């Protein structure tokens, strides 16, 4: 662990120093941050350092954590709460990082009371009141169109008001009815499309598993493919833009210019 991170964890009164070259190297593998203006980027970097001071990282299966890895995870975790605040992640501290996908043993009980055990291969998991588990891939190994950090931390936001149900606590200016209508109709349509074999979707088909997963994959698409999400479900995009207080579509305009 870096000396600056030791200093950060050892004293909240000392300001760690991360040089510009390190920030740029980390952010190069996160091109979806390009829509942020200079002020927003500075705030995100500062929030990422506060996040690292508050959370405890652990490497699983022998994974050795390094500075750029933790900075990258912190930046991605903080992006959804840039305008919400880190208090949304209060009440838990652990982040477990795996080298690639990993196996979680599951257990279900059928209608006859018979217990069935099986292993599920996953990229990440968020536990209510507990840690966040995420996989780490090098750039040439990362699955395309997937952001496990944003996905799992969207679940954490969803869990703020209880179990994950696709309905996080909304800011005062947002309508619960508007959110329910936008996400409810989109989820129903999305499930129909997935069941029908539609592969031309801006959202991971995994979102059809449950409304909580639909919210999480929609949050992924909001940051990774904002134009695609806005074209597919404009009301969902508008709800997420109000919720996060961000509009990632701006980077498309800036890129065109």
From TrEMBL:
Pfam families, A to Z: Peptidase_M90 (PF06167)
Origin superkingdom: Bacteria
Alphabetical list of CDD domains matching this protein: Peptidase_M90_mtfA
Gene Ontology terms, MF aspect: aminopeptidase activity; metallopeptidase activity
GO cellular component, one term: cytosol
PANTHER family membership: MTFA PEPTIDASE, PROTEIN MTFA
Name of the featured protein: Zinc-dependent peptidase
